[in-house]
What we know:
With 584 residues, this protein is of the alpha+beta class. It has 18 helices and 18 strands. It has helices at 3-16, 46-49, 97-111, 134-143, 155-158, 228-235, 248-257, 263-281, 290-308, 316-327, 333-336, 338-372, 380-390, 394-403, 410-437, 441-460, 489-504, 516-521, and strands at residues 20-21, 59-67, 83-92, 119-124, 150-153, 159-161, 166-177, 196-210, 213-227, 377-378, 407-408, 467-472, 477-482, 509-515, 535-541, 545-548, 562-572, 575-583. Strands 1, 2, 3, 4, 5, 6, 7, 8 and 9 form a nine-stranded mixed sheet that branches. A four-stranded antiparallel sheet has the order 12-13-18-17, with helices on one face. It is globular, with a radius of gyration of 25 Å. Residues 428-437 have low confidence and may be disordered.
Amino acid sequence: MKAIEIRNKYLNFFEKHGHKVIPSAPLIPENDPSVLFTTAGMQPLVPYLLGEKHPEGTRLTDYQKCVRTNDIDEVGDNRHLTYFEMLGNWSLGDYFKEESIEMSFEFLTKELGIAVEKLSVTCFAGDEDCPRDEVAAKAWKKAGIPESHIYYYGKDDNWWIAGEEGPCGPDTEMFYDTGKPACGPDCQPSCDCGKYVEIWNNVFMEYFKDKNGYTKLKQRNVDTGLGLERMAMLLQGKETPFDTELFAPVMDKLVELQKQDIIESRRIVAEHLRSSMMIISDGGRPSNIDRGYVLRRLIRRMIRHMNKLQIDLNELSTLIDINVDNLKEMYSDLEINKEIIKNTINEEKDKFVKTLAHGEREFEKEINKLNQKGIKIIPGEVVFKLYDTYGFPPEVTKELAEENEFEINLKEFDELFKKHQEKSRAGSEQKFKGGLAEQTEETIAYHTATHLLNAALKQVIGKDAHQRGSNITVDRMRFDFNCDHKLTVEEKQQVEELVNKWIQEELPVTKEEMKKEDAIKSGAECMFIEKYPDIVTVYSIGNISKELCGGPHVNNTKELGRFKIKKEESSSSGVRRIKAVLIK
């Protein structure tokens, strides 16, 4: 069964069960300060999971484009992906465990035709905070899962929370038995031996955790996620996602073009190309910070491995054409944005070729220093500096070292690189944590202030100024917007004065729901209008600002305090960035 068929079956199934099909949110989050990319299906729905009314009701389903880069260095093995598609269905204070499990079982066994004996499930084992989830286990037994295929695990496996505080609850996970031999008599879904593969996760969000412990939420939600690539792989009997139709045409072309046969490199090129194309199509551009840096890293890692395969880098355009043709049924935006994708990737390729040349010059300087000291081992810190500062691949450093009869201190480099990875993961986790845990009075105020800033920029710079991204913490806001020049002192002053004028006017902030086409006619602004559902939420600030937005916002601008621009700088080509604070 092809991936597109699985997606369509999923959406049709849940639509028949009273769910409204909503569009996938863009990979570049709009008005979400917590993450660089959309990382999960629940992320765009955070306000509604916290109790805000969704315009489409209490039962929702969609497919969500996602990017996660915590394990970018693992891509190349048989399972890791940075871009993937998540199928999800949600109950916002509607049905709960029993109905959720009943529908999941029906979809897996009836719609996808998976034999019951192939399925195992896990439930929360219980602890001092929450009892053993016998309700979920009983529902699985009633649906048809034998008791011998039901397992109980603790919070590490069957409890979901974003970060350290926020909405949370036990979950139940579904596993597919691949038919591989058991690793031993105690082989269970918790094993990493490859026999069991997790395919679906239903989170029963009924608690809220803060520094004082757990309390019950007023609204109980169900939040689910099913990985499309993984499911396609299993149903097609393939060993890896790279063997499915999602990657096969590009993988085949790489075999045709390569002069060195390295399976890991082919996977990296195919995976990073797809991820880069999806990010660029949704508005991402390479840069030295945040999501732009992630995109730059994906493209450059792809180019490095094309070099390892000894493939002419001019073939990138051919590979992009193949991917667009292969994926356009699933992602029509790729065809629309094909030339932008090509230009962006090829420009980055040209820059990286220069970077490699620069890195080689730096390498020469380093080994000349070592030669003068009679040292023939390159320290790990030098290898890491070449990698971290100049983007110079460690495998290239190793090859050059051997050519010059040097060794490298791999142990030292590995230790530094491991610390670098841990720091990156911690930063990513902290950003994701904010999605549910950091909707404070401060961040809500900054969220409203971005709307005022957007309106002020339109008046000062021109009506074609539009938001291109934002990042908010409890201490400051950061706002990206398209602009072809550095703002003058006078322009910054005008923007600041306008925002403060509107704050002092104590403008009301109002919310209304309307049809998408009516919102457009009314002049409401948003990025990616085509991604919104038929019924949308529009926030207005007096007659100054009107935007499609999920919220939340303050009730009146008088709650914001004084607006102060701290810095204005370049974010990327054609995009400027303002950093500002609210002083109360």
